[in-house]
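Long-time lurker. I teach an intro course on protein structure, and each term I like to show students one example going from raw sequence to a predicted 3D structure in token notation. This year I'd like something fresh instead of my usual example. Would anyone be willing to generate the tokens for the chain below so I can use it in lecture? Attribution to the forum is fine with me.
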Amino acid sequence: MTDIQNLANSFFLEISKREDEIFERAVRENAIPKITGEITKGKIRWRGIRMVQQNDLLSSVKWVEQRGKQISPKIVCDYKIKLN
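-- Reply from a regular --
Happy to contribute to a lecture. Here you go:
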């Protein structure tokens, strides 16, 4: 892999890790009832929790909802293409 590919991979890995932390915190603190212990697919499904993602050509927005109500902050990523 090139240095640019390594940099891009580490960048996207870090973003993914931070998103996971934000979403886990939202599920543990803002869901009703709160999730304690291990977060499993069954617990998520039973509480009506889902991740919503809206993609555009140059942007992406993600958040977590519980039965239609937003329980996490929206994470917005805007992408820019710069041509020299």
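Some talking points for your students: The first strand starts at residue 49 and ends at 55. The helical segments are 3-30, 41-46.
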